[in-house]
Automatic annotation (TrEMBL):
Name the UniProt record assigns to this protein: Uncharacterized protein
Positions of the HFX-2341-like N-terminal domain: 11-138
Annotated DUF6293 domain residues: 244-321
Swiss-Prot/TrEMBL keywords: Membrane, Transmembrane, Transmembrane helix
Spans traversing the lipid bilayer: 100-122
Top-level lineage group: Archaea
């Protein structure tokens, strides 16, 4: 059975290469709802690259296919991943249950790797992502000189292939990812840079009092200190000054992600194991539920600096954050 017929509608994503049919024919024949084409920015692209981009756009416009150009360095894995994520998140935000098809045959090997990896990591039960490889009818290298001369009447630059014989659907494997709250912690740790965060700093992020803390409101700072240190008396001026620096650092890390901060606070409250909490029990909770779990996924490392233990995101963790 022709696999091409299994593709129906959906949102298509492709990295531009020196191809036309390989990028346009499947969305046109299977009536794609939209196509995202990832291309080099005009100022960085070659004349050949611009020519192929224009041919692809003209083909889509002629066949009334909705498309959007996303500019990126198509030889940079991280940039391609960001654009694929952008397209998927944008469509899901607007339409939720969207089926995606990623063309992994149109660009470079880097584009293929980005497409398949994004499909594995971002796949959802109600919003499937299926990469596909286009099998062309003819390759440029297989054509005679006479055939090439005839095609030059139609093309300024000859594509690497012509026509579509069929497609190979590449169904992604499911990848086990850390739970959402752990990924939020991972993101915050990564924002701390090379130094990372201490376990105590991570425990402060789980406090309800941190949600409302304000550097210009000393009362809110004192409430946070009392909650973290489990004390009833007012903290000293020295302690307030020391905490103020820590709070400023953590607020800069959280940025505007207050909703995500709220999620880890709620998670901490749901899973607390004792009403008789101490500063040590808070650190134990973070170590058991956050640090150990992220280590199981091999996403972080820790380093002893002075008397403090700093948690940092490793290369594998940084790569995962790029994809999610």
């Amino acid at each position: 059975m022709n696999k091409l017929n299994k593709i129906r509608g959906g949102v298509h994503i492709a990295v531009q290469g020196y191809e036309v049919d390989r990028i346009t024919e499947v969305p046109i024949k299977r009536r794609a709802e939209k196509v995202y084409l990832i291309c080099m920015p005009d100022e960085e692209d070659s004349e050949r690259g611009k020519a192929f981009k224009n041919m692809i756009k003209e083909r889509f416009e002629k066949n009334k296919i909705d498309y959007e150009i996303l500019e990126a360095n198509i030889f940079n894995l991280d940039e391609i991943v960001k654009k694929i994520k952008y397209a998927i998140n944008k469509e899901r935000k607007e339409f939720e249950e969207v089926k995606f098809y990623i063309n992994v045959s149109s660009g470079s090997t880097i584009g293929c790797i980005a497409g398949i990896t994004c499909a594995m990591i971002l796949n959802r039960e109600n919003s499937k992502i299926i990469p596909y490889y286009v099998i062309p009818k003819k390759l440029l290298d297989s054509l005679s000189d006479e055939e090439c001369e005839k095609l030059r009447e139609e093309y300024k630059y000859l594509p690497r292939s012509f026509g579509v014989k069929d497609v190979v659907l590449i169904y992604p494997f499911n990848i086990s990812l850390p739970k959402e709250e752990l990924l939020i912690f991972l993101k915050f740790i990564n924002r701390a840079g090379d130094r990372g965060l201490t376990i105590k700093e991570l425990s402060i992020l789980t406090r309800e009092e941190f949600l409302d803390v304000n550097l210009n409101n000393e009362e809110s700072i004192m409430r946070l200190i009392k909650a973290v240190e489990h004390i009833d008396s007012d903290p000293s001026r020295i302690r307030i000054k020391r905490y103020r620096r820590t709070i400023q650092k953590l607020l800069e890390i959280v940025e505007d992600d207050k909703e995500e901060l709220n999620k880890i606070v709620n998670w901490r409250n749901r899973t607390k194991f004792s009403e008789n909490k101490t500063p040590q029990s808070d650190l134990v909770w973070v170590n058991k539920n956050v640090i150990e779990k992220l280590k199981e996924f091999e996403l972080i490392v820790d380093e002893k600096i002075g008397r403090s233990r700093y948690i940092k995101v490793n290369e594998k963790g940084k790569m995962l954050l790029n994809y999610i």
